[in-house]
Amino acid sequence: MTPPPWHAPRAAYLLTAAMADNAGAIVAGDRIAEWAGHDESAQRDVLAALGAQTRLVLKMLRDELGVEIEMDWRSTPRAVCSQALAAARELIKPKRGARATPECARCREIIAKAMCSLQIQAYFRLGFTPLMIAAMCRQSANEAAMFPRH
Ligand SMILES: [Zn+2]
To answer: Has residue 85 been placed in a domain?
Structure first.
């Protein structure tokens, strides 16, 4: 059964909300239900949706504050393989490039969490508290299901 087109954006928002509940901290080995419940193909879709959502907030940060923030490129490479790292760079690049996703499940999860964390940092700089970010993401998740853009 193919999931509805709004499934991945919704799951991506819920994942960011769950991370915001943890104040954006990436807890190593921490299972997040919003991620672990997905099979590989769904995870790829969620990664793509997370990439789109991350690009959006990074653009907002650039436009409103003239600030650029990046994924932690010092600690992320230690945690994932080079293929996953390249995929992560592609996913958050403002210009659409090839959308590769990491082959390994472990790396996909780390990259997903890193993108959530990046979004939370960006929203934080824009003046939102983690509590507000979590609420905002949950609202967007509901809207994604109510007003599908596809
Ligand atoms: Zn890997």
So the answer is: yes
